[in-house]
Amino acid sequence: MTRPTVLIVEDEPWLAEGYAAALDKAGWQPVVVRTAADAIIAVDDHTPIAIILDIMLPHVNGVQLLHELKSYADLGTIPVIVCSSIANSFKADQLKTYGVRKVLPKVRVTPTSLVASLREVLAESAAV
Questions:
Q1: Please, what's the b/e burial string for 51-70 (b: 16 or more CB within 10 A of its CB; e: otherwise)?
Q2: 37: buried, middle or exposed (CB in 10 Å: 19+, 13-18, 0-12)?
Q3: For 56-96, how does the pLDDT look when each residue is reduced to its tens digit (9 = 90+)?
């Protein structure tokens, strides 16, 4: 049985590995990429049920990636959780048109809170 894929777009290796371990343990198949360009390729290859996204990425930032994803009808509906050190600069409502369902400050994210947030977002998406 194939586990549902969750794409993690995070350029900090230790953080991405921690997120991936937590999601793997919770039953999802994490796919980790470090750049927005790699995220576009991964979305095409893996069709994730959700995306965990950092905003401060090298070259192309997370907001630009959200804009690119939104330009594709099938990709614009993937729920996104933003985990960023600049999370306080955004409100989920500001990014809702891009599929962002939750904005989490990176300094407060724990494996448990990330899994709980993902479950919450997926449950809300299924209810719509």
A1: bbbbbebeeebbbebbebbe
A2: middle
A3: 888 888 888 888 888 877 777 889 999 988 766 766 677 77
Q: Which residue has the tokens 């995220």?
A: 39
CB atoms within 10 A of CB 42: 19
Q: Quick one: average pLDDT of 108-124? A: 94
What domains can be seen in the chain, in order of their start residue?
5-127 (3.40.50.2300)
Note whether 30 and 20 are within 8 A (CB). Answer: yes
> Which candidate, 93, 100, 30, 32, places its Cα nearest to that of 63?
100
Collect all residues with Cβ–Cβ distance below 8 Å to 81 and sequence separation of at least 6.
50, 51, 52, 53, 100, 101, 102, 103, 104, 114, 117, 118, 121
CB atoms within 10 A of CB 97: 11
CA separation for the pair 100, 26 (Å, rounded):
21
